[in-house]
Design a protein that fits this description.
The structure is a single chain. With about 230 residues, this protein is α/β, with parallel strands linked by helices. The chain folds into 2 domains: about 120 residues, Rossmann fold (3-Layer(aba) Sandwich), CATH 3.40.50; about 100 residues, Winged helix-like DNA-binding domain superfamily/Winged helix DNA-binding domain (Arc Repressor Mutant, subunit A, Orthogonal Bundle). Helix content is about 40%, strand content about 20%. The chain has 8 helices and 12 strands. The protein has a 5-stranded parallel sheet, with helices on both faces. Helix 6 crosses helix 8.
């Protein structure tokens, strides 16, 4: 489990005094904290790649439910804790449906919030076990040896769909569909090979072998390295 100092928390709370109190408490425990008062401000920031999001539900503008859904879509592995005075069963079910991991009724004691963060950490994927870590917002790809390379949007999409596919492999037509290519084109396989080759070159810059994206004859391609996506 990562140390508190390695965790980046995204806190969204519109009540100024409560937000400041939580920031002070969490920072005192050695967490990294980025705090905002609205969903719009949080989404406009570069902090949506945080490890865990702590979200008030009743926010001005778009509410915490909307923000949780957006964060879950943008960063599938993010941990999400909702904090709210809305404690009816339907509210809780909605929270879990939009992607929350924990639903804590307000008022939340800071010590309980820390306990929930630590419990969630034990369930989050271990970034250090992956060969690569991909930041979807910046398109920055980091290897386990800390070397980094920036992917193009096309390369980022290709790596993502392979990393999220069953057994990390896709048929030609599946890749073409994900990448919005013409399935009926006579040059489909050639186009795919060119795109895969560009991704392979980026991966070899991180000291991965060319077989990190393996061609499966008569089938498609398989990713042979592990990727953690944020």
């Amino acid at each position: 489990m990562p140390a508190r100092s390695e965790l980046k928390l995204l806190l969204v709370e519109d009540h100024f005094a409560l937000r400041e109190m939580l920031v002070e408490y969490l920072v005192s425990l050695d967490y990294q904290v980025a705090a905002y008062e609205s969903a719009e401000d949080a989404l406009a920031s570069a902090d949506t790649d945080s490890s865990i999001a702590l979200l008030d539900v009743n926010l001005p503008g778009e509410d915490g439910m909307f923000l949780a859904q957006q964060l879950r879509q943008k960063t599938p592995n993010i941990g999400i804790i909702l904090m709210t005075v809305r404690n009816q069963l339907n509210d809780k079910l909605e929270g879990y449906n939009v992607g929350a991991d924990f639903y804590l009724p307000k008022p939340v004691a800071p010590q309980e919030l820390d306990a929930a963060i630590q419990a969630l950490c034990r369930r989050l994927p271990n970034q250090q076990s992956a060969d690569l870590v991909l930041n979807h917002v910046s398109q920055l790809l980091t290897a386990s040896n800390n070397q980094q390379v920036v992917l193009s949007a096309e390369e980022c999409r290709l790596l993502t769909v392979l990393a999220q596919a069953p057994k990390n492999q896709l048929e030609y037509w599946q890749l073409a569909d994900y990448l919005a290519l013409d399935l009926d084109s006579d040059t489909l396989k050639t186009t795919l090979e060119k795109r895969v080759s560009r991704l392979r070159r980026k991966l070899t810059q991180l000291d991965l072998p060319p077989t990190a994206v393996k061609a499966l004859r008569g089938f498609g391609y398989q990713l042979t390295c592990s990727v953690q996506i944020h």
